[in-house]
Amino acid sequence: MSLPQPKSKRLDFHAVPAEEQLSRADEFLELMNSRRTVRDYSSANVPLELIEKAVATAGTAPSGANMQPWRFVIVRDPEVKRKIREAAEKEEHESYNGRMSEKWLRRLAVLGTDEHKPFLEIAPYLIVVFRINSVEEDGETEPTYYSQESVGIAVGILLAALHNMGLATLTHTPSPMKFLQEILGRPKNEVPFVLIPVGYPAADARVPDISRKSLDQIAVVV
Question: Is pTM, for the whole model, over 0.90?
Fold first, then answer.
């Protein structure tokens, strides 16, 4: 079997002084610690350029075999958003009224969530992230490698980029999500991964009074 030869170029790396490393770390931690999941949105317009730059930033994520198995569909058409809301609420109704276990519902109760998702129409944008599970080349189908992990990393970077711009987000995963594939006309190799409303929070927006785990609860040094 003949394999292609690797190509490389010199790394463009700029060293950061130790004291600046720490200040950058503190500033970024403080910024990200202010990030909250938002369900109350303003309909105020957001420049499309901001959304596109955030998606471009997400596209810098590492991926298995550099296959970059993601597709970001930016939805701003009110009619398409309406269809997505209706389909999502239909699935959520089934979930809240039979699919979810009592333990799951108990976890969600403290967050105040239910089957009603008005933010899907109010937020100026919905970013629907799809995981590309296979590609076709020279008439043959090949799976994308570590696509689940790769897309997850890209979504994390996307959320950080949007928060850095001063925009609010929510990760919404109605289950099942095949309706997103159908409404948005995506091919069968693009599997819905997450639905992210994006915009400014409403003036009276509220969030659950919850806390994050401390460092010693999530990190182990060996």
Answer: yes
